[in-house]
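During the no-cost extension, the postdoctoral fellow (Dr. R.K.) reprocessed legacy sequence entries with the updated structure-token encoder. One reprocessed record is reproduced below for audit purposes.
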Amino acid sequence: MKPFLKWALLGLGMLTVMLLAAGMTLRFALHGHEVTIPDFAGMTVGEASQAALKTGVDLNIENKFYSTTVPVGRVLSQAPAAGSRVRHGWQVRVTESLGPQQVTIPDVVGDPVQEASMEIRKMQLDLGTLAHIGAPGDPDMTLAQTPPPNAGVDQPRVNLLLSSSVNASSAFVMPSFVGMSFGAANRAAIGLGLRVAAIGGVAAAPAAAPAPAPAPVVPGQPVAPVAPPAPAVPSGVVTEQSPESGFRASKGDVVRLTLGAGGAAAAPVVPGTAAVPAH
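Re-encoded structure tokens follow.
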């Protein structure tokens, strides 16, 4: 009886050792090659692919969605989340951003306001500001629109300028100054009776030449006045304007021109019609 018990205990011990070894092997196989998933959000697809390859996970672009916050071609979301521990070679699913959804603006110039409104809403766009200006012909006809027809925008809101039978000889349609040099835009705006406010693009005043030695004062002769330094003149190309082109304007209104770098230097502003300071 004793030899049998001895062999039974020996067999049980060997079985226990085998089970422990198998458990340790399985644990190493499951957890020995774990990696931490990086944060792919905001990366370009190329950058995310490089980061995934370096980490040891497989990147899979599962979906593509429009987004107003994440630029086109960048990772919008991922699963599993960043910081998760997974096995080497695990598949990480990501969603790529298509950027803001672009919509096409219909051409409603020349249409009555009712037809223009229906066309705008049919395209699932929002009807924005309705402004009126005195014009010959039928009232409430669309004279201009902003944004212009066939423009691709991510904020679908269309503003309309409509005709009115009320006489408004001092009113006119605001032209576009975008792309013009400040000198040309300033002269054109002044010719329409507008006041100009330049935003940015102010050139530094030229360096003053060394002042000549003062002439000796001769008793009985007047002292020649000293000319003041020339003021800095705005320069650059108009990149934005407010109000935008197509809106109603009147003489004396202020048009704010945002200036960017580039373009020819502006011509000096005609005395008495200089750009007013921006508020």
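Residues 203-208, 263-279 have pLDDT under 50 and may be disordered. The longest strand covers residues 126-134. The remaining legacy entries will be reprocessed before the final report is submitted.
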